[in-house]
Write a structure and sequence with these properties.
This protein has about 190 residues and is α/β, with parallel strands linked by helices. About 55% of the residues lie in helices and about 10% in strands. The chain has a single domain, classed as Glucose-6-phosphate isomerase like protein, domain 1 (Rossmann fold). It is built from eight helices and five strands. A five-stranded parallel β-sheet has the order 2-1-3-4-5, sandwiched between helices.
């Protein structure tokens, strides 16, 4: 059991090390962080969505923006599109599961907002439909996905691909990336800056 646990930790560490050593990925993360900062400075909001564990990540990241990350400061407008059971079940029932997020973006998204789409495969149908709706509304899109990027890689304005094909490793890295963005936004807007 100890060997098994150590292997899990080692495996996670290897992916994080790959991210750390990938200067193009670090630069992309810097660019995305700046885009989120600009979104908030313009008075707009972030919308975030994913399925399963990625839905939990969407809620986690939105919570960090709305509440706080490192220090006390005013809340930042962010909405996880995975939380309102009445809305979710109405859309799924009336328009089908593939429209779960696109319908919410149609109703609540505004030009100048930023959508963070989370899918380990990059192929989740309801995420793809949401990304298409963002294009219709002039909403900037950021994808968090795995090493291939899937269909999302072709649609997103920015696609951050975690260098792994293992769902747990990708999800662990997605929350790390979400935390980096939250920290950068908080520091740029309310801290001492960089």
């Amino acid at each position: 059991m100890n060997k098994f646990i150590s292997h899990q930790i080692e495996d996670s560490y290897k992916i994080k090390k790959k991210i750390l050593n990938d200067s193009a990925l670090i630069n992309l993360l810097k660019e995305v962080s700046q885009r989120v900062i600009d979104t908030y400075k313009s008075g707009n909001k972030t919308l975030i969505a994913g399925n399963g564990g990625s839905a939990a990540d969407a809620q986690h990241i939105a919570g960090e923006f709305v509440s706080k990350f490192y220090f006390d400061r005013p809340g930042l407008a962010s909405q996880a599109l995975t939380t309102d059971t009445s809305v979710l079940t109405a859309i799924a029932n009336d328009y089908g599961f593939k429209n779960l997020f696109s319908r919410q973006i149609q109703a609540n998204g505004c030009t100048g907002d930023l959508f963070i789409a989370i899918s380990t495969s990059g192929n989740s149908e309801n995420i793809i439909e949401a990304l298409k709706e963002c294009k219709n509304k002039g909403i900037v899109t950021v994808g968090l996905t795995g090493e291939t990027g899937g269909k999302m890689a072709e649609i997103c304005d920015y696609c951050i691909k975690v260098p792994s094909d293992s769902t747990p490793r990708i999800q662990e890295s997605h929350i790390l990336i979400g935390h980096i963005i939250c920290a950068a936004v908080e520091e740029a807007i309310f801290g001492k800056g960089f």
